[in-house]
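Fill in residues.
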């Protein structure tokens, strides 16, 4: 139930390793915020500073307006679950989960009720009498998660809490974590490098790379209005395609070919200062429409190289017409039949075209459409 503010927060290890740089953002009360980013980007350092496990080198962290910089983990009333389980080896699973409640002096009957409730939610009832060391990694993580979630804290901090579970269980656990968050109504910060996890869980996503905040926003913001090229390519599977293009005028770009090129109309005007500039045209594999005959408007021809079936969809790798035969990925319906080597037309709707001048977005497509 805390609103958490990070205000110009830095983490510098040993006076020289800058792990977190000038981080400012707010986690709203009852929000589920996912901190997403590549390995080594500063996610765990941020979480550990929120937890009070790591000293804050500069800046302030506030819970409900109150500075907590100098408070230890216990004084902050937070729950933690990490990638490594940190379970008490000499206690049974039951006692591990019950521990935070016993410390608070809760009555036996209530402890038992709560342990059983969370164990049922996380499917742990069958291992309650076992020792954690006799369990596989994924199960130990579930115990660690149960022990964190049972506390009903001000703030729940979860750092890659399901990374050791197998794929099928992970999907289930995501739903359980989100359900528990919703029913408890607490504030949750969840660290992961897995974008599928972020997409499944988050109210908002904060993307951190090289210790710096790249963007914070809803999935819609991040998907449709990425703040930079890194964000555009980091979120999305398969990742956004980038095609070299030249700005013709404020309303169109050209993908050059020896015969002239393919022209693409834009949804919004681009600043005239970019006319003649080489840019990267970004288009998501899910947002390309395929045709066998040349359609009207924004289309480019390409030859199908690879077809990968993935359940209800198929991912096509297509060599675009042109000198560099740029490869693009297209997500198509799995029921459509395509053959390797056939020529298709790729239609790129003006509203889905992203343009980047280096790292900077200069056309974000559907900004005004939604
Ligand atoms: N105790 C430490 N002493 C020195 N450097 C550290 C320490 N902990 C982290 N770092 C460095 O700080 C940077 C950020 O690390 P951090 O673990 O916060 O990133 P991360 O995004 O959580 O990565 P991962 O997903 O791999 O855990 C890295 O360069 C890391 O090597």
């Amino acid at each position: 139930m805390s609103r958490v503010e990070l205000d110009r927060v830095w983490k510098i290890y040993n006076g020289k390793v800058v792990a977190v740089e000038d981080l400012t953002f707010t986690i709203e009360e009852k929000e589920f915020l996912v901190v997403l980013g590549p390995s080594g980007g500063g996610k765990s350092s941020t979480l550990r500073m929120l937890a009070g496990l790591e000293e804050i080198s500069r800046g302030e962290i506030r819970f409900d307006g109150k500075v907590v910089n100098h408070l230890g983990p216990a004084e902050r009333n937070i729950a933690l679950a990490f990638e490594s389980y940190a379970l008490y080896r000499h206690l049974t699973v039951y006692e591990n989960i019950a521990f935070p409640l016993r410390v608070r002096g809760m009555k036996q009957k209530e402890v038992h009720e709560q342990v059983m409730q969370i164990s049922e939610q996380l499917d742990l009832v069958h291992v309650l009498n076992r020792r954690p060391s006799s369990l596989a990694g994924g199960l130990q993580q579930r115990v660690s998660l149960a022990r964190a979630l049972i506390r009903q804290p001000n703030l729940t901090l979860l750092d890659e809490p399901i990374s050791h579970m197998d794929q099928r269980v992970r999907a289930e656990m995501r739903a359980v974590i989100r359900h528990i968050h919703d029913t408890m109504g607490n504030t949750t910060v969840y660290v992961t490098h897995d974008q599928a996890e972020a997409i499944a869980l988050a109210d908002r996503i904060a993307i951190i790379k090289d210790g710096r905040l790249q963007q914070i926003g809803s999935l819609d913001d991040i998907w449709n209005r990425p703040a930079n090229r890194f964000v555009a390519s980091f979120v999305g599977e398969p990742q956004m395609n980038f095609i070299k293009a030249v700005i013709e005028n404020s309303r169109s770009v050209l993908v050059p070919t020896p015969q002239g090129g393919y022209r693409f109309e834009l949804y919004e005007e681009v600043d005239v200062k970019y006319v003649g500039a080489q840019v990267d045209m970004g288009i998501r594999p899910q947002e390309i429409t395929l045709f066998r005959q040349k359609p009207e408007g924004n289309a480019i021809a390409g030859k199908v190289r690879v077809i990968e079936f993935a359940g209800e969809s198929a991912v096509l790798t297509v060599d675009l017409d042109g000198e560099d035969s740029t490869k693009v990925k297209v997500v198509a319906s799995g029921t459509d039949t395509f053959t390797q080597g056939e020529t298709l037309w790729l239609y790129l709707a003006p509203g889905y075209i992203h343009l980047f001048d280096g790292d900077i977005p200069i056309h974000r497509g559907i900004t005004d459409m939604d």
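The CA atoms of residues 301 and 345 lie 5 Å apart.
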